[in-house]
């Protein structure tokens, strides 16, 4: 089924929109099935789970960290992670920079914007992102590059609300594109999951993070 699900989703995604297959809680065998169907971008939300899977899987996979990152975990992924979606503080950026330097790498990052009504979702508001991107301190971080923004809409059936939130992030993203520097180059807008990716693409997303619609429901074991 994984292969069929992937094909179905790909047929709905325009060229130019990157699909990140979200494999959190899913076994290696499922990831290999998607890999054998041609998928190369995979997303996890726990650093150590991603590290374990990356060690066991082909090396041409591009790993995306899509979850909230604790600073003390950055070191476990700094050697291989392709893109960190959920960056929500300057302190975290500094730690990513420090760990990336140890591996002589530049790690690509997205800043996570808070667009949902729910107060539980992580992220920065637009003013905070604007300040961070224009800050002088950011210029010192030679081992990170901010290449875009990530956001999650409110979990609701109210399509108008979801569209409004995606739209606001798209507008803000466009306004940030002029802020280019040595380590800022806005080109990725990561928004859209299984339940709302079509709306997200309609509103300008160019990277979607899809788990359930490819791999089925997740069974969380406490
Ligand atoms: C789990 C997760 C996804 C994928 O969610 P699905 O509804 O299973 O597609 C996308 N983004 C983030 C940040 C996630 O944690």
Folded structure, characterized:
The chain is α/β, with parallel strands linked by helices and 222 residues long. The protein contains 8 helices and 8 strands, in the order αβαβαββαβαβαβαβα. The longest helix has 18 residues, at 159-176. The radius of gyration is 17 Å and the shape is globular. The two termini are 27 Å apart. The mean pLDDT is 96. Bound molecules: pyridoxal-5'-phosphate. Pyridoxal-5'-phosphate (PLP) is lined by residues 22, 24, 45, 66-67, 193-195, 209-213.
Helices and strands, in N-to-C order?
HEHEHEEHEHEHEHEH
Ions, cofactors and other ligands present here are: pyridoxal-5'-phosphate
> How far apart lie the N and C ends?
27 Å
Task: Look at the helices and sheets and give the structural class.
Answer: alpha/beta
What would the average pLDDT be, to the nearest integer?
96
Concise account of the structure shown:
This protein is α/β, with parallel strands linked by helices.
Keywords summarizing the entry:
8 helices; binds pyridoxal-5'-phosphate; 8-stranded parallel β-sheet; single chain; 8 strands; 20% strand; 222 residues; alpha/beta
């Amino acid at each position: 089924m994984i292969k069929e699900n992937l094909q179905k989703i790909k047929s709905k995604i325009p060229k130019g929109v990157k699909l990140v297959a979200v494999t959190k809680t899913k076994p290696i065998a499922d990831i290999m099935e998607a890999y054998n169907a041609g998928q190369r971008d995979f997303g996890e939300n726990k650093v150590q789970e991603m590290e374990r899977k990356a060690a066991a899987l082909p090396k041409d996979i591009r790993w995306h960290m899509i979850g909230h990152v604790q600073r003390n975990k950055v070191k476990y992924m700094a050697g291989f992670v392709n893109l960190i979606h959920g960056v929500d503080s300057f302190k975290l950026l500094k730690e990513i920079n420090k760990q990336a330097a140890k591996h002589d790498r530049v790690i690509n990052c997205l800043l996570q914007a808070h667009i949902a009504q729910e107060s539980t979702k992580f992220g920065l508001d637009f003013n905070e992102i604007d300040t961070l991107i224009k800050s002088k301190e950011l210029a010192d971080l030679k081992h990170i590059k901010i290449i875009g923004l990530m956001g999650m809409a409110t979990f609701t059936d109210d399509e108008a609300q979801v569209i409004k939130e995606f739209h606001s992030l798209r507008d803000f993203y466009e306004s940030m594109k002029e802020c280019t520097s040595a380590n800022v180059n806005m080109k990725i807008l990561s928004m859209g999951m299984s339940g709302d990716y079509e709306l997200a693409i309609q509103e300008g997303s160019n990277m979607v993070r899809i788990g359930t619609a490819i791999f089925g429901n997740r069974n969380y074991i406490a």
